[in-house]
């Protein structure tokens, strides 16, 4: 009887799946156009009143992406007032759309990885067409100085990126 040979195991590849480092908790959106007259113009008195009456508790321990969906010109002090309301509640906040904030946090998580686990190893970064290319750029930048070889795709048929 023929013995099964695991060629992937023989290659000594370690698989790194970028999705395992993606933040689980997604950012909550705060579109400040809701505090503007007709979504376009900031009227100071009305803006301050709406900020005061808004239920900020929905952002408790959340990642908050503050943005404006309209082409309104918003003075910087207005963002500071919103930041003041969020600062004691939100886990983190940023002025960007929620998907951008999630990507920023994902990149940060990758930058915080313990790279010593990959030292002088052969690493294959799992392929996912839905992942933003900046994830793959960052992983290449982080891993190249550390690993023996870097591959992309699946362990059974990886694409060689580089070998030392």
Word description of this protein:
Helix content is about 30%, strand content about 20%. It has about 160 residues and is an alpha/beta fold. The strands form two sheets. Strands 1-5-6-7 form a four-stranded mixed beta sheet. Strands 2-3-4 form a three-stranded parallel beta sheet, sandwiched between helices. The two termini are about 40 Å apart. β6 and β7 form a beta hairpin. α4 runs parallel beside α5. The chain is built from five helices and seven strands, in the order αββαβαβαβαββ. It is elongated, with a radius of gyration of 23 Å.
Provide the gyration radius in Å.
Answer: 23 Å
Q: How many E-type strands?
A: 7
Oligomer: single chain
Mean pLDDT: 93
Offer a concise description of the structure.
This protein has 164 residues and is an alpha/beta fold. It is 32% helix and 20% strand.
